UniProtKB/TrEMBL annotation, chain B:
Pfam families: ThiS (PF02597). It comes from Micromonospora trifolii. It comes from the Bacteria. CDD domains: Ubl_ThiS. This is Sulfur carrier protein ThiS. InterPro entries: Beta-grasp_dom_sf, Mopterin_synth/thiamin_S_b, Thi_S, ThiS/MoaD-like.
Amino acid sequence: MPFELGGETFTSRLILGTGGAANLHVLEQAIRASGSELVTLALRRVGTAPGSTGGLLELLDRCGVRLLPNTAGCHTATEAVKVARLARDAFDTDWVKLEVIGDERTLLPDGVELLRAAEELVSDGFTVLPYTSDDPVLARRLADVGCAAVMPAGSPIGSGLGIGNPHHIRLIRQGVDVPVILDAGIGTASDAALAMELGCDGVLLASAVTRAADPVAMATAMRYAVEAGRLAAQAGRIERRFHALASTPDEGRPEL
Amino acid sequence: MELTVNGAGRSVAAGASVADLVRDLVAQPRGVAVAVNGEVVPRTGWPARALRDGDRVEVLTAAQGG
C-alpha cells in the first residue's frame, strides 16, 4: 500500500538523510540504492559545510527525489521558524523537518520550543514533520497542532543505539492519527525492521547509511529492512510463548 | 561600505543590493536564501533591498544534513 504523507503519495517508506556522506558520488549511489523518494538536506553558509560548495541540488534533481529541508542546529523556536522560512525560499518547498535541539550532548529535542515552532509553521502553511522525543504525550500535542507526521527518536542522533523504548514508540503509534516516522538512532537493518514491526509508517535515517563502511550496501539493506518490517507488521506475528510448540505433528510417529 | 557576510567582514560598493551581493558570492542563485540582520529577505525582494553599512548578512545554500 502506498505511503501517504503531507498529502503526497510515496512508494518508499524510507526517508534518507544526506548528512555524513564522504562525498557526493557515494551519496548519489546510496540514495539510488535506498529507493528513497524523500531526502533531507540542510541550509548552511555558502562554501562552508559539506555539500554547500555546489552540486547537491543537482544530484537530488537527478535522483528525482522530493526535498525535505531540516532546521538542524536550531535551539529556539524563533530560530527554527526563520530557518524554515529561509529553506522555503531557497528550495521552493513548504515541507520542513523541524528540529529544535535542547541538549548538546544527546541532541534531544526541546519539546517546549518544538511545539511552539510547529504551531507557528503550521499556521504559516508549512507541512511540518517534527523530530521529537519518544514521549507519547508530546507526540500527540504535535499532531494536535497540525503536524503532518510525528518523528520520534529511537535513540540520540547518530548514536546507532537503535530503539531504546519500543513500548513508547508503540504508544505513539496508537496515540496519533498522522504517520509516525522513526527518526534517529537507527544503527543497522534490524533496527529499521523493528521500527516498522512496532507499527511505524516509515523510517528516517542518515548516519546508519552514510557512515557505514559500505554506504551503498547499507542503503540496500535498509530498503529491504523497511519493506520486510512493514510486511511482518501486517502479517500478524505468532505469539511469544515460554515453552516450545512443535511444528512437526506427533501423530503418525513410528514406534521403534 | 562594510558588511558582515557569513560572519566575516566584506566591503561592497555603496548602494549595493542583496541581489548584487548574491551575484558576487554564488554562480547561480538557485537554492540560495538570504537573511539581513536576522530577518529573512525573500528572493523576490533581493533587487529592491539596499544594503546599509554595518548590515549582518547571511547567505545560505543547500548542504548535506540529516
